[in-house]
Design a protein that fits this description.
- The structure holds two protein chains of two kinds.
- Chain A is built from 18 helices and twelve strands.
- Chain A is of the alpha+beta class.
- Chain A has two domains: 162 residues, Periplasmic binding protein-like II (D-Maltodextrin-Binding Protein, domain 2); 203 residues, 3-Layer(aba) Sandwich (D-Maltodextrin-Binding Protein, domain 2).
- Chain A has a three-stranded antiparallel β-sheet. A three-stranded antiparallel β-sheet of chain A has the order 10-7-11. In chain A, strands 1-2 form a two-stranded parallel ribbon.
- In chain A, helix 2 links the parallel strand 1 and strand 2.
- In chain A, helix 2 runs antiparallel to helix 13, helix 9 packs across helix 18 and helix 17 packs antiparallel against helix 18.
- Chain A is globular and about 65 Å long.
- Chain A starts with 6 loop residues before the first helix and ends with a helix.
- By secondary structure, chain B is mainly alpha-helical.
- Chain B has a domain of 202 residues: MetI-like (MetI-like fold, Orthogonal Bundle), CATH 1.10.3720.
- Helices cover 72% and strands 1% of the residues of chain B.
- In chain B, strands 1-2 form a two-stranded antiparallel ribbon.
- In chain B, helix 13 runs antiparallel to helix 14.
- Chain B is globular, with a radius of gyration of 25 Å.
- The chains are: A alpha+beta, B mainly alpha.
């Protein structure tokens, strides 16, 4: 027997092996002490983990707060932080792998999703630890899902608009006032763009912003969802998409490519921070984070509204804390959450990082820096003049709702790029969101 | 020539096999040494692949028990506009980026094969983009270069063309920036081309020169025919790699598929389905469709290759 060893056979064997390899590639600290049971006080002594999203400043504050916790209870709490955009995906894989952190903070849209799958501990199962007596009673009820207290609010919050006061002043404008109408907003945005000669936009294009869209719908007497059905019609979506289309066409808002560019990245790439547009819509608790990113003085105000009684605004936590139900240290995790919300030093350390502290006595006793004070004042204003009732988290975010943000983004962008009309975009959005709920 | 070159090899192999004596226990030792590899193959490759195949036929949201749905995930793809968009974007990406990348790599390899001074240095320098091109840092840098205030627009400004277009943010140009990034990662195929060029006997060029053939004729009549096996090798590997591109598209376009889904490559949509929408069953089905697609394209390449590849021993 002999081998006919040619270049062709060598190459074929080599190619086959490499091809197979390439094809295969495409397919695809625990608490060492006695663990407390429901109803018992935790005997902390080991290591806990808390997952986290947000800025480096937030992680620094958490690390500082957990150093205080260790002094009182021993052990340690480690914070594993990722950027906000990736957090939802990381949390999903950790939950699926049974390896979620002991303490799981999450934005409001995720709470009901995980609570329905019994992945969040019932905090009332630890009566000697959980103390909600000092917390804002309206806020905390929203976290009760299917009769279980699955999450506690980390800080009351409300949707807001940030404006670059310094830059506007240079152009001869003052930032809009809380309660201004949409007509005021459109006129103002056009005026700023015109005065700047088109080099500075009066407003960002917020057509893809699901939170502001929700406020807009509430102003029209409808909602994103009505139980397990869609709460708005194509006419509502047309009004929304059409308004932003008009703002783009008039030059008050940036072109589609500039908006798409700014959408990729964190706060630092927003047109407010990069000096391309005068505003940004977001939850008010990050006012300080934005203020730290720019040399300009910022102002915080309300999103536009038809009237104070139809503001569409509400006060509710946007960030929540839960304990992973399948973790080994549930009692201790509940104790950490309790500490974050009710310990005076812990609350002072966190400040308004997640929103205004839900412990009302501690909120009143704190002293804030200028940016945090501006946010707290804004929240008080919304609570007193604008706030309207809001359904609890389970009703606001029915099963399948988490996909809606991506659908609005795609529809808003395809309309902005002229790939489809406002009418077609609105119909597409409604069809997609109805499909998600099935 | 073939018989002459293979004869010594044959002789050596014959001698080796004649000398080999099987001893009792050889099989056990073979099992011991092969064991770790076999265990790894079963647990880390075949096992997950079989699990993925099973999940492709289920409705599985990562958090609750999978439920059998038959072929629903596969039939859904044909009515899913986002899947169709992802497929279109990916085919466009593969069809444009691979030929341009290989052409560029071949051009550079030909230049470096001329025996220019410092060839080793230039070879290393040109290989660097292949090493760093898929990194997060380069993808972020790409966003800066092709942003509205980026280097590209500044360069246009120097030429008197004022532009504030965000090439990365415009749905009609974003994919081209991603294609450019892939072309820029030409180092690996270039090194392989260079190795292939070094294998071509210089006597052939000397003979051709004596016969009056110019550089252009030598390239098409000698270089290209003898380089076709290497070109085929590069082509197959680059197509497989291009179908699976994820990192650069994810960083440049974000997890939302870029402006108006213009950067929604197949792997990005697969990732979205699995980890943003919690549709792991659908994602697994998509992965198997991609596997089959790549397999079909590769088989087609091998079949077509019979008609255009020239082996020196033919």
């Amino acid at each position: 027997m002999s081998f006919d060893l040619t270049r062709r056979s060598l190459l074929t064997v080599g190619m086959g092996g490499l091809t197979l390899a390439a094809l295969a590639a495409c397919s695809g600290g625990g608490n060492t002490g006695a663990l407390p049971k429901p109803g018992e006080t935790p005997t902390f002594g080991g290591s806990l983990r808390m997952s986290q999203y947000g800025t480096a400043e937030r992680k620094a504050r958490l690390d500082k707060m957990f150093a205080l916790y260790t002094k009182q209870f021993g052990g340690e709490v480690k914070v594993s932080a990722v950027e906000s955009a990736s957090y939802g995906e990381k949390l999903a894989t950790e939950m699926a792998g049974g390896a979620a952190a002991d303490i799981v903070p999450m934005y409001q849209s995720l709470v009901a999703e995980y609570a329905r799958k019994d992945l969040l501990a019932d905090l009332d199962g630890w009566p000697t630890i959980t103390d909600v007596s000092g917390l804002d009673q309206v806020s905390i009820t929203s976290g009760v899902i299917d009769g279980k207290r699955t999450a506690l609010p980390l800080g009351d919050n409300s949707y807001a608009a940030f404006y670059d006061r310094t830059r506007l002043k240079q152009l001869g404008f003052e930032p809009p006032e809380p309660g201004d109408s949409w007509e005021d907003f459109i006129r103002f945005s056009n005026d700023v763009s015109t005065k700047s000669g088109g080099s500075y936009f009066g407003t960002m294009d917020a057509g893809a912003d699901m939170n502001l869209f929700e406020v807009f719908l509430r102003q029209r007497g409808v909602s994103l969802y009505d139980g397990s059905a869609l709460g708005f019609t194509a006419a509502d979506a047309e009004a929304w998409l059409g308004m932003w289309e008009d703002l783009r066409k008039s030059g008050a808002a940036p072109s589609a490519d500039r908006t798409a560019e700014a959408a990729i990245g964190g706060y630092g790439t927003t047109q407010l921070v990069t000096g391309q547009a005068s505003n940004f819509f977001i939850f008010g608790n990050v006012f300080k984070a934005f203020s730290d990113l720019t040399a300009s003085e910022l102002a915080i105000t309300s999103p536009p509204m038809p009237s104070a009684s139809d503001s569409g605004l509400y006060v509710r936590a946007s960030n929540w804390a839960a304990a992973y139900a399948r973790g080994k240290n549930v009692g201790d995790a509940v104790n950490v959450i309790q500490f974050m919300l009710n310990d005076p030093e812990a609350v002072e350390t966190l400040g308004t990082e997640f929103g205004a502290p839900p412990n009302l006595d501690l909120r009143a006793s704190l002293t804030y820096d200028a940016a945090d004070q501006a946010f707290v004042d804004y929240l008080d204003l919304v609570a007193s003049d604008f706030a309207q009732p809001i359904a609890d988290l389970a009703a606001t975010f029915p099963a399948g709702a988490t996909k809606s943000g991506q659908a609005l983004k795609t529809v808003s962008e395809t309309v902005a790029f002229g790939d489809q009309s406002v009418v077609d975009g609105a119909a597409s959005l409604v069809a997609q969101m109805e499909g998600f709920l099935k | 020539m073939t018989a002459l070159s293979t004869e010594p090899v044959t002789a050596t192999l014959k001698t080796g096999s004649a000398r080999k004596v099987r001893r009792p226990g050889d099989g056990r030792w073979a099992a011991v040494f092969l064991g770790p590899w076999a265990i790894g193959l079963v647990l880390l490759t075949i096992g997950p692949m079989m699990a993925s195949l099973y999940l492709a036929f289920t409705d599985y949201d990562l958090l609750t028990t999978p439920t059998w749905t038959g072929f629903d995930n596969f039939t859904r793809m044909f009515t899913d506009p986002l899947w169709q968009k992802a497929m279109t974007v990916t085919i466009m990406y593969v069809a444009v980026s691979v030929p341009f990348q290989l052409a560029f790599a071949l051009m550079l390899a030909l230049a470096l094969n001329k025996g220019v001074w410092g060839v080793g240095f230039f070879r290393s320098v040109y290989y660097i983009p292949s090493l760093v091109g898929t990194s997060v840092a380069i993808a972020i840098l790409w966003r800066q270069v092709f942003g509205s205030a980026g280097l590209f627009n500044q360069g246009l400004g120097l030429l008197g063309i004022e532009s504030t277009t965000s090439w990365i943010g415009d749905s009609s140009t974003a994919l081209w920036t991603l294609i450019l990034l892939r072309v820029w990662e030409f180092g690996a195929p270039m090194v392989i081309f260079l190795a292939g060029l070094r294998q071509i006997p210089t006597e052939l060029y000397e003979s051709a020169s004596l016969d009056g053939a110019g550089p252009w004729r030598q390239f098409w009549k000698i270089t290209m025919p003898l380089l076709t096996p290497v070109l085929f090798f590069n082509l197959v590997l680059q197509i497989i790699n291009a179908f699976q591109v994820f990192g650069s598209a994810y960083i440049i376009g974000g997890n939302g598929g870029g402006p108006a889904n213009s950067l929604l490559l197949y792997s990005v949509y697969l990732y979205q389905a699995a980890f943003a929408n919690f549709e792991m069953g659908y994602a697994a089905a998509m992965a198997w469709v991609l596997l089959i697609l790549i397999g079909v394209v590769t088989a087609l390449n091998f079949w077509v290759g019979r008609f255009w590849i020239t082996y020196s021993d033919d």
